Amino acid sequence: MNFLSKEIIIIIGLLLPTVANAFGALPVFFTKSVSQKILDTMLGLAAGIMLAASCFSLIIPSIDYGGGDFKAVMITAVGIIAGAILIDMIDKFAPHEHLLDKRREGKSSSLSEIWLFIIAITIHNFPEGLATGVGFGTNNVYDGLALSIGIAIQNMPEGLAVALSLIREQYSAKKAFLIASLTGLVEPVGAVLGYYVVHVFKPILPFILAFAAGCMLFVICDEIIPETHSNGYERESSYGIIIGFVIMMVLDILLG
Hints:
Blueprint: H1 6-25, H2 36-65, H3 70-93, E1 96-97, E2 104-105, H4 113-137, H5 141-168, H6 173-182, H7 186-200, H8 205-228, H9 234-255
Antiparallel strand pairs: 1-2
Helix pairs in contact: 1-4, 1-5, 1-6, 1-7, 2-3, 2-4, 2-5, 2-8, 2-9, 3-8, 4-5, 4-7, 4-8, 5-6, 5-9
């Protein structure tokens, strides 16, 4: 990719996950349903990619940038926990509804179901955008690109899951696709924020990398894995997680 400038690669990388979200929702124009087994396996794949991205693209670089010693490990540990706590607090207090299993969480609200769903997706997607921006903010453009491609791959089944859920709620294919596509717009916002936070607060880069990882890890553990393991297809979902982890691991080595 030497023919592309660093700035162009960063712009593409920051936008790629959002485009992938819309691309993943395209099948709703051709089918109204996908088997739960396939959907859970695909979402497991997404969880595995996020898990590996957290490990190889955020946590390990956090320790490396911190100096690789015990102090660096402690800074990384604090960052991971802080990121998880932040998303936990937002999840606990922000009113939202999970469209896949209809769970309502957070404070009670008179907002319509679609707005509660959009808030849920924002809580889910923002950490991914933040992680992408932080990845590019380290100035190793290929590390950031690996993270961006990995998140883009895992966004496709998520986009499809959102669109299919809206179809089941009697939305038209066109409207379901549009809403599923728009839910990815929060990611570039998180990505730009993450990119500039790294540059402004460069002295605490190890903490910021770990913080982004903690945000993603909480979403994986609290949202994605429980949903994929609640429909009787735990084994298929588990293999999806493992395959997704391997895909991201290979991607990180090839591009990192």
